[in-house]
Write a structure and sequence with these properties.
The protein is of the alpha+beta class and 172 residues long. It contains four helices and six strands. The two termini are 33 Å apart.
């Protein structure tokens, strides 16, 4: 390891602080609308589309640069599976990972304009409510990101129940 390079635990602490301030990742805070986000994009529902519940229909990028975050899965920084068989625990880890990836690029959940969810079809319909409950602690629920939710037969690893990718907008 380079002496001038922070240790991975120090780097994680910096990212954690950038992500949620003094709160811990175990207790996320809902993202508030940011001035930066309102200047770079607009999330809305056109009047002539059916009403949406829990997501926006359109994300209009007005300026800035796009940040694409690859599909995040329920693995911690050590690469270990988190929440084997536990859909909610896996969702929590995936949102933590999304937040870390965004923070590393200087973004937050307030900058995310698109979420794509890939969920294994074996998840019972009653468990799907957990997606909204977990997500709503991270995103601005007054102007939520546009979203796509897809059921798949399985993900790359048979123990993964959910994978989520994101797109954020940063100042140029």
């Amino acid at each position: 390891m380079n002496v001038n390079e922070p240790s991975s635990s120090t780097r994680r602490d910096v990212i954690k602080t950038a992500l949620v301030g003094s709160a811990t990742l175990a207790a996320p805070v809902a993202a508030a609308p940011s001035d930066r986000a309102s200047r770079n994009f607009r999330l809305y529902d056109p009047d002539k589309l059916p009403p949406s519940t829990g997501f926006s229909q359109v994300a209009e990028i007005t300026r800035g640069k796009l940040l694409y975050i690859a599909g995040q899965v329920p693995r911690n920084a050590a690469g270990d599976l988190v929440g084997k068989g536990d859909f909610r625990a896996q969702l929590e880890q995936v949102f933590i990972n999304l937040g870390i990836a965004a923070a590393d690029a200087g973004a937050s959940f307030a900058d995310i304009v698109k979420l794509n969810y890939y969920c294994v079809a074996s998840i019972e319909p009653a468990q799907q409510r957990a997606v909204v409950e977990v997500r709503d602690r991270y995103v601005n629920t007054q102007s939520p990101p546009v979203s796509t939710f897809v059921f798949v037969s399985r993900l790359v690893h048979p123990d993964w129940l959910v994978e989520i990718e994101a797109v954020a907008v940063l100042p140029s």
